[in-house]
Amino acid sequence: MSKIIKRDRGLFLTTTREDFNFVADHGEGDFAYDVTGRRFIDFTSFVSVYNLGVNGNAEIRNAAKKQIDKMMHAAFTDFYAELPVQFAEEMLKLLPKGFGRFFLSNSGTEANEAAMKFARLFTRRQYFLAFYGAFHGRTMGSLGMTASKTVQREHFGPFPNTVHAPYAYCYRCPLKLKYPDCGIACADYVRKYTFSKEASGKEFAAVFIEPIQGEGGYIVPPKEFVKEIRKICDDNGALLVADEVQSGYMRTGKFLALDNFGVTADIYTMAKSVGAGLPMGVTVTRKSLGDIPSGSHANTFGGNLVAVAAALAAVKHTVRNKRKLSSMAKEKGGVIMKRLERMKETYEIVGDVRGIGLSIGAEFVKTKEGKEPAVKERQKILDYCFEKGLLLLPAGESTIRLIPPLTISHASLKRGMNIFEDAVKAVNAGR
Ligand SMILES: Cc1ncc(COP(=O)(O)O)c(C=O)c1O
Known about the structure:
Layout: H1 3-11, E1 24-28, E2 31-34, E3 39-42, H2 45-48, H3 58-70, H4 82-92, E4 99-105, H5 108-123, E5 127-131, H6 140-145, H7 150-153, E6 162-165, H8 185-198, E7 204-209, H9 223-236, E8 239-243, E9 267-270, E10 281-286, H10 305-320, H11 322-346, E11 350-356, E12 359-364, H12 375-387, E13 390-391, E14 393-395, E15 399-402, H13 410-429
Parallel strand pairs: 3-13, 5-6, 5-7, 7-8, 8-9
Antiparallel strand pairs: 1-2, 2-3, 4-10, 9-10, 11-12, 12-15, 14-15
Helix pairs in contact: 3-10, 4-10, 8-9, 11-13, 12-13
The structure holds pyridoxal-5'-phosphate (PLP).
């Protein structure tokens, strides 16, 4: 074990890493390098942060460097500055019509906390609905909505008034039905039970949804599910909040992942790739919802000028190259999906493959018939890939997410997929 890992383990209270011994040194483009100089192809975007390439790009880095020498922090919630204004103006070009009230913070969880508070203020209602498998963050409000792994919630409750309902995880339907014959019974469940028995529909401030559940296992729901949830919100006067923290920012080929479902939310939350490597959270609301009283919500570092300089360079790049980024996500996602579909036919342990654009998951099972989660096998695949120089991350109980930067070269994509298939083949054979 590296000496750095030993020192780390003696110092830090908690982490989520248990099995990865990657000790970062530097990174650029498709690659990350560890402290021994080993090169890894990145299939993680460092948890969906580097959608525009590992360590951003030169434009982003130069903007941040320049801003460091000028002024780093300008207390954006107390004073004015032009950079955050430019950032919001630029981001508006990527958002649906009618949006235009922003709140800036430092992370995904803060973006969601803000959305919860705003939803309560706007509606004067108390309850939130989130879905089983959701990950919305780990601070008290957002953690109440997170329902992914037991360890994330155990001993931390009680939480604010949040209730949960089944997500349309069709490969493992929580209602044991089959899509499309099910008639989207899970959405029906929300209408008939959650929005009636947990609390009256009229008491719900908002429904929070990840358009694609990320930490929960890269689960893509059917369009009808998302549409029906929108309708349930409309019928009851509740707001729909789309958590785009992991699935947004062009990863699906569209700026907002929710756009793939033909639905518009009332509030969007974003983080991760917004700052392209620097901490930045965004909560953006529909203008018609109105304003919130001055001083009712604020923070110290939201709108930090270095983070915003990077975010502005990233969003300008995205506006300029939207078409190109979109086709990169679709085309490269198509390459991965085609290969995964073939692997599903070939190897018993590949149970399900799913995704939109470069938001992709492969779920591993002991047998296709029984669908028992292949937790150990998944770890072996991750280890094998790590040994061969491919960085990957798990999601859900037995899924691996394949989320390289949108900018990944075809050569690195192919090399990465070759390593991945070799790993699956070896683990499948050695069962
Ligand atoms: C969908 C989603 N929402 C919220 C968060 C929380 O973001 P952060 O870790 O920046 O607080 C995450 C983090 O993985 C996420 O995937």
